[in-house]
Amino acid sequence: MKKVAYVLSVVISFVLLFPGVSPAGKEDLVGTRIVGDMKIEFYMESPKKGMVMTSGKKMAMHNPAPTHHPEVKVFDSETGKFIPYLDVGAVFVNLTSDRILQTDIPAMLGGYFHYGRNASLPGKGKYKVYIKITPQELMRYDRMAKKWATATTVSFDFNYK
User: How far apart, in whole angstroms, are the C-alpha atoms of residue 123 and residue 47?
Assistant: First the structure.
């Protein structure tokens, strides 16, 4: 248990000291959007193995098998600090077949804190991806009442070859 606490403290310290640094390669970056006080980065990576919940319960396997690991990172557009406690969801629209995948993208710790999950896209082709970010109700100082307080949806184009 002490080892887990130590590892978590190191990871959290890394995130706080280097908020814009992440292991996701720039080749996985689909795009970046700045909306108001949020900078949103969207990545599409290969599916990840061995994902578990805090309780140790393994994540349910997708049927069919996952094709991608969509990842969203949201930062304060002024300071570059990661924004936690957001509800993040995605809608993937296959522009070739009109098939749709709608999914949540939960908070995840995988070497750094981000929003991510494995997903099975409905076939190859060109996609329009809509990322919806909704801030949760959060206690804050009145001077920060409007900071990260507005829900937003951004879109990205992605080609699944």
Answer: 15
> pTM of the predicted model, to two decimals?
0.79
Distance CA 111, CA 13 (A): 12
**Amino acid symbol at 129:** V
For 82, residues 6+ apart whose C-beta sits below 8 A from its C-beta are 15, 19, 73, 74, 75, 113, 114
- Tell me the domains of the chain and their CATH numbers: 2-48+60-160 (2.60.40.2480)
pLDDT digits (tens, 9 = 90+) for 22-54: 444 556 999 999 999 999 999 999 988 877 667
The CA-atom distances, in angstroms, between 138 and each of 29, 37, 133 are 29, 16, 15
